[in-house]
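hey so i finally got around to running the thing on that chain from the lab meeting. sorry it took forever, my laptop kept dying and i had to restart like 3 times. anyway pasting the input first so we r on the same page abt which one it is
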Amino acid sequence: MTLTDSEGADVGAGPWSTRSKHGHKLDEVVSALQKSVRRSDSDGALYWAWELNVSGYGAWAWRRLFVVCSEDLGLAEPLAPAVVGGLWTMSEVLRANQPKPAPGEKALYPPLQLLQAAWYLARSPKNREIPDCLDVLYVRSQRGQLPEVPDWALDKHTGRGRGMSRGARHFEDESEAGGRFIANAVEVDGNVWNRRFHLEWRPPDELRAEDPASPTAQDPREDGERQAGLGL
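ok and heres what got predicted. didnt touch it at all, straight out
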């Protein structure tokens, strides 16, 4: 769903000369909202979110809070998108059932969910690792500092991997050289199905070599992978 403000304009592109209900320039109000969240100034975040909403720009406030989830909280609060998205969904349900504004008046978003989201983000821990990473990636790409595809990514699902005769056995290898290697793996219920898989499974090419007509000579997962366009 597209977030637009009451007059239907994409206010994220301007005009910067527009004033809020109480005389603030809109671009400065939006900046103050995000900077208040960054500084953990919950009172400021509450006011600037409220000011945008009562001025008819609640959608702009919500858009900015969505950006804040990833740009300013990021890895420090991974639940932020779910929390803020949930509050926005509640707001949309309530907004759809509130009285329509009179002609010439601007529609306002239900204020409680917007203010709760602003307060929550301001009080949450902050981390900008991902935005900083993005900037580094841009800088490196401009310099031509691009990585090579690692050898362990070349398996039966890639042209180069097939050219290296890397088949199912290589793909199912859980060592660091194989396709199923997992770092920081967590064992759940003893990982009994993992052990059963390695006890019962054999590469289809080995089974075909023994008995081409055997129904087990085709890995049943390959059909599903092809249908889904996956297989990685």
